[in-house]
Every structure is written in structure tokens, then in C-alpha cells.
Amino acid sequence: MLADSIIEPCTSHWSNPILLVPKKLDASGEKKWRLVIDYRKINNVIENDKFPLPNITEILNSLSGCIYFSHLDLHQAFYNVNLDKESRQYTAFCSGQYQMTRMPMELKTSPSSFSRMMTIAMAGLNYEKCLVYQDDLVVYGNSLHPHNKNLLDIFERLRKVNLKLNAAKCVFLKTDMLYSGHVISDKSVLPDPEKKCFKKIIPSRKQ
Fold first, then answer.
1. 182: which DSSP letter?
2. What are the residues facing 190 on neighbouring strands?
3. Which of 3, 57, 102, 140 has the fewest CB atoms within 10 Å, counting from its CB?
4. CA distance 205 to 9
5. Residues 23-41: pLDDT tens digits?
6. Where are the alpha helices (DSSP H) in 138-181?
7. Are 71 and 165 contacting, i.e. CB atoms less than 8 angstroms apart?
8. Cβ-count burial of 5 within 10 angstroms (0-12 exposed, 13-18 middle, 19+ buried)?
9. Given this model, what pLDDT does residue 188 score?
10. Ramachandran class of 180: left when φ > 0, alpha when ψ lies in -120 to 50, beta otherwise
11. pTM across the whole model
């Protein structure tokens, strides 16, 4: 993180505790770790960001009836948002002492701030060629050609706004796909059978 300029040395009066948690194994099978910072004290005193988060039920409804899907995962999603220099001191953590230069996911305002950024970045494409839920993008199409055209348009936009993909987590050209705890296909949107919870089944719009 230091080499990537995501963190920097500091002399802040704040010092938040950290821990390392294992990441879910990706296609590479390599064990990786995530740095988690406990910002509960900071979160208690900062103002909420009122920008709305995407509605997952609305997204799933929009995917129902589509035939082809690709799932894109953004690389280091929240770290694409720079923190202004005045705010960085409050993100300091104790391992030595460093502070964030990019937006950490543990701040309570981060999801809304990231959602705002993605709404701006994908303007004109969201709900037209793709569906965006935080760092997950689903590209869809009712036939092969529209899907592929949509995918190229998304690639071009991501290149324009300088957002990169995590290739190990991307899935392309599927007729059924696991997404946000659901199995989506042209026939239905069903809860993931491996999840021990029950959610409303969304029927396909196709007759």
C-alpha cells in the first residue's frame, strides 16, 4: 500500500487500530489478506453522506429476462477516490503510523461517496448498457451482439475515467451467473442455494 501511494507516513494525533483478515480465494488460489481499520470512533463524529445507494432489488428486476451477462469487478474500488489532505489525518492507524491518501472502505461515508463517483463515471450507461452496484458492474444483453457492443462501450468508459478491473474476479458471456447472492438467468432470478437465507424470488418478465 505504501508503494502504491495508498498510505503515507504521518504524525497525526489520531491513531485507529487495525487487523488483517483473509480474503476470499480468487481464481488464482493464492491466499491474500485485507487490511481492516477500526474507524468506529471517527464514524461516531463525522456527518453522514446522504447520497443514496443502489437498490439491489431494482437491479435484480432489471436483469430478469436478459440472456447474456458479464460481471466486472473494479480493482481496488474505493482506493480510486482520493482523500483531500486535510481529511487524511483522521484516517491514521497504528502500525508505525500511517494515514490513508485514498478513501478507506471502513468509513461510514465511503459507500455513498463511492456510489456518487460511480454514478458520475457511468452516466448514460447505467441502466442502459450495464447495472452498477458499488464496485460490481453487470453488462447484459438480450442477444450476443448487443451484449458485446455494451461490453465494449463499458470498457471504453472505464478506460476514459481511469478505472481498472480485477481480471481474476471478472466473468464474461454467461447465460446464468451468481450475482449478489442470487443466480440470474433468462428464466429467473433465484436466491443462491448455498446461502442459508430466504429472499423474494423475482420471476422473469419473459413469457
1. E
2. 183
3. 3
4. 54
5. 877 667 778 888 899 999 9
6. 144-160
7. no
8. exposed
9. 84
10. left
11. 0.82
Give the integer Cα–Cα distance in Å for 115 and 53.
6
Residue that is written with C-alpha cell 454467461 in the block: 174
**Phi and psi based region of residue 201 (left: phi greater than 0; alpha: psi -120 to 50; beta: remaining):** beta
The one-letter amino acid code at 180 reads: S
pLDDT given for residue 150 in this prediction? 96
Question: What would the pLDDT profile of 142-187 be if each residue is shown by its tens digit?
Answer: 999 999 999 999 999 999 999 999 998 899 999 998 888 888 888 8
Q: Which three cell numbers stand for residue 96?
A: 508505525
With a CB cutoff of 8 Å and minimum separation 6, the contacts of 17 are 37, 38, 93, 94
Length of the chain: 207
* Residue carrying C-alpha cell 485514498: 102
Are 163 and 74 a contacting pair, CB within 8 Å?
yes
- Kindly list the domain boundaries of the chain, sorted by start residue: 7-203
Which helix (H) or strand (E) segment holds residue 73: the answer is: strand 68-73
Element (H, E) at 178: strand 176-179
State how far the Cα of 123 lies from the Cα of 118, in Å rounded to an integer: 8
Q: Which residues pair with 137 in a beta bridge?
A: 72, 132
What is the CATH code for 7-203?
A: 3.30.70.270
Question: Which grid cell is 91?
Answer: 484516517
Cell of 5: 501511494
Of 154, 202, 194, the closest CA to residue 178 belongs to 194
